[in-house]
Amino acid sequence: MAKTILITGASSGIGKETAFYFAKKGWNVAATMRKPQNEKELKETDHLKLFELDVLNTGSIQKAIEATITAFGKIDVLLNNAGYGMAGVMEYASKESIQHQFDVNVFGLFEVTKQILPHFRQQKSGRIINISSMGGRVSFPLFTYYHATKYAVEGFSESLNYELNPLGIDVKLIEPGGVQTDFAGRSMNFVEGNLTDYNQIQNKLHNALQGDEAAFPSKPTDVAKVIFEAATTSSKKMRYLVGKDAKMMVRMKKILGTNNFQRLVKRHYKL
Ligand SMILES: NC(=O)c1ccc[n+]([C@@H]2O[C@H](COP(=O)([O-])OP(=O)(O)OC[C@H]3O[C@@H](n4cnc5c(N)ncnc54)[C@H](OP(=O)(O)O)[C@@H]3O)[C@@H](O)[C@H]2O)c1
To answer: Which InterPro entries does this entry report, sorted A to Z (predicted)?
Structure first.
C-alpha cells in the first residue's frame, strides 16, 4: 500500500516541489495550502489531493487531516513546511508582526503536530518532519525573530522526539541553507524604521544581500530529495542539513565557537 504524506504550505517553493517529488515516487500526497482554489500547477489525481489548510486555523487543520485520512486511509508522514521570514532591525518590528511570525512558524507548527498525533498514536507509527533552517543552528544579522522561530522549532523537535519514540513515532529536522524559492521575495517581511543608530548595519546588510544569488545555492528539488530520504530512512538520524552553505556554516560555528563565528560574520559584512 502506498504511503501518504501531508504537506503544509504546498502552494510554492519547497512544499510544492516536495509534493511533486513524492507523487513521482508513488506516494499519496495531501498537498495542503491556504488557497487550493488558486493552485495551477499541482493537478489532482487519485494519489494527489489538494486540501485547504491554514496553520493559523485549527478547524482547517482538523478538516485537512480528516479529508486526507478519508482519501488515502492513513497518514505516514507530516511535513511541517509552511513558514516565512521576517528581517530587519529588532526594534522596528511591531508586536503584531512579531506575533504573526511566531504564529505561523512556531505556534502553527505546534498546532498541526498536535492535531495529527491522535492518528499517529492510534496507528502506533508516524513521522513528523519539521522544516527548520540552517538559521536554527547559526545566526546572521538582522534576522532576530526568524532565527528565534527556527531555534524554537529545533528545541521543540528534539524534546518531542523523546516522548514520541516509545509510541513508534519520530521527529526529524530539515535544515536548508539558502534555497531558490519565493522566500527571499514574497515570503520575506522586511520591517522598516528610521533610527539613525541602525543606518550603518542596515545599509551594509542591504547592499550585501542585494542580488546575492550565492546566498541561495540550493534548488527546491535538492530539499525535496533530502526530505524523501528523511521520510523513508530507517536511520535514527534526526538532523538533515541541505546545501553546501548550510553544511559549511554549521561546521564553522562548531569548530570556531560562537565568538569567533560572530567575528567572522562581522568581518564578512564589514560590520
Ligand atoms: N528558501 C530558503 O532559503 C529557506 C531556507 C531555510 C528554510 N526555509 C523554510 O522553508 C519553508 C518553506 O519556505 P519556501 O522557501 O518554500 O518559501 P515559499 O515558496 O515562500 O513558501 C512558503 C509557504 O508557506 C506558506 N504559508 C505561509 N503562511 C501560511 C499559513 N498561515 N498557513 C499555511 N501556509 C502558509 C505559503 O503559502 P501561501 O502561498 O498561501 O502564502 C507558502 O506555501 C519555510 O518554513 C522556510 O522558513 C526556506
So the answer is: NAD(P)-bd_dom_sf (IPR036291), SDR_fam (IPR002347), SDR_oxidoreductase (IPR051911)
The percentage of the chain sitting over the pLDDT mark of 90, rounded to a whole number, equals 90
Task: Name the catalytic one among 146, 157, 240, 253.
Answer: 146
- pLDDT category at 25 given cuts 50, 70, 90 is very high
The atom number, within ligand 1, closest to the CA of 223 reads: 10
Residues β-bridged to residue 80: 130
**Residues framing ligand 1 (Cβ under 6 A):** 8-9, 11-15, 33-35, 54-56, 81-84, 104, 108, 131, 133, 176, 178-179, 181-183, 186-187, 216
| DSSP secondary structure letters along 95-111 | HHHHHHHHIIIIIHHHH
Q: What are phi and psi of 175, to 5 degrees?
A: -125, 80
Q: Closest Cα to residue 15, out of 46, 44, 45, 50?
A: 50
Distance CA 190, CA 187 (A): 10
Distance in Å, CA 267 to ligand 1 centroid = 30
Q: Is 146 annotated as catalytic? A: yes
Going along the chain from its start, the domains and CATH numbers come out as 4-268 (3.40.50.720)
pLDDT tens digits, one per residue of 166-210: 999 999 999 999 999 988 888 888 899 999 999 999 988 877 766
- 76 CA from centroid of ligand 1 (Å): 22
Q: Which of 132, 133, 139, 218 is catalytic?
A: 132
Picking from 187, 110, 118, 180, the residue whose alpha carbon sits closest to that of residue 146 is 187
Largest pairwise CA distance in the chain: 61
Mean of the per-residue pLDDT values of the chain: 96
